[in-house]
Amino acid sequence: MKTLQQIRRDLHQIPEIGFHEFKTQAYLLNEIYSMDQERLKVVKWKTGIVVHVKGLAPKKTIGWRSDIDGLPINEQTGFSFESIHPGFMHACGHDIHMTVALGLLRLVNQTPINDHMVFLFQPAEEGPGGALPMREWLKNQHPELLPDVILAFHIAPEYPVGTIATRPGLLFANTSELFIDLVGLEGHAAYPHRTKDMTIAAASLLMQLQTIVSRAINPLESAVVTVGKMTSGTVQNIISGHARLEGTIRTMDAATMQTVKKRIEALCKSTEIAFECQVKIDYGSSYYQVYNSEEITQNFLSFADRDETTNAIVCDAAMTGEDFGYFLQEIPGFLFWAGVDSSYGLHNAKLNPHEKVIDYLVPFVESYIRSL
Ligand SMILES: CC(=O)N[C@@H](CCC[C@H](N)C(=O)O)C(=O)O
């Protein structure tokens, strides 16, 4: 049997983006099928997997969700087990999430709990979003696999191993992706007056987008408009006829999201007039906020407080997005942060989560689940 550390390292080497997690799914299935199958029911959904573990005297079904996708980042950790997929990396810790889920699955399969458990290995958390379609598929095709309560964690680089952090109520923001295409007229660098330069138009629009949060949002509310990628042009002596901005919007409530979008649309319209071009907006996928059930989360924090190996913190809400919010929209439960003591943050090419979080978290979560 492979150690959990080996599993984490194997998974770390094969990051795949949303709905392309073919090797990941095959690896997970191999591990799951190597376990005693007597209590297990395994169902595939796209590149994801659902595993039902039969309880001894079930009163409810407890769900544990792990996301499984990686990010399009060129890894720079220097690990001996670096990604073998150039340009892709587990830079958000989903390799750790999957390993903890497998470790937990092993334990509750070896020594069953009273309740049923369902493990959801969910694709595409980073985008375009797997939780909502997976939830709908479960409801429509496998209602018997729907959990009554659902739990998940996310690694937290800023905390030491042994620290967990969460809060009852709102934990993560509402999100919407943002893709803006600007189409003008390309031409010779020496004849700018015969072109419609989309590098200039995109640069101007990018700067104007920065005024939304500072001037259109009530300072007592919160919003983020981040453009993470900007592309334009082909070569130094051609004026670009096409530019693209790619970003994300984050807000603490749905009404503010609408205000931000209205401002983006207005600024795009004015860019069309000012730069004589066409501007097209695509909002991509959007995630519902992560709203932790008050009572269950409070009980979990009290449980963690009593645990000698754990330092439990009530943290602030964050502008992070998580499509796990779609599960919590309909099923009670919560998400918590677990410290991994990394000098580099999430979505960083040098993210280095400490592996000892796996050996800490698996028995901690197991004992919490047995207490439910
Ligand atoms: C935990 C985490 O980092 N989640 C991602 C979710 C991305 C949602 C979507 N693709 C977007 O960019 O809006 C995050 O960036 O917060």
UniProtKB/TrEMBL annotation:
Coiled coil segments of this chain: none
Domain Peptidase M20 dimerisation: 184-271
Listed GO MF terms: metal ion binding; N-acetyldiaminopimelate deacetylase activity
One Pfam family matching this protein: Peptidase_M20
Annotated cofactor note: The Mn(2+) ion enhances activity.
A biological-process GO annotation: diaminopimelate biosynthetic process
Binding site for Mn(2+): C92, H94, E126, H154, H347
Cofactors demanded by this protein: Mn(2+)
Keywords: Hydrolase, Manganese, Metal-binding
Superkingdom as given in the UniProt entry: Bacteria
SUPFAM superfamilies linked: Bacterial exopeptidase dimerisation domain (SSF55031), Zn-dependent exopeptidases (SSF53187)
Name of protein: N-acetyldiaminopimelate deacetylase
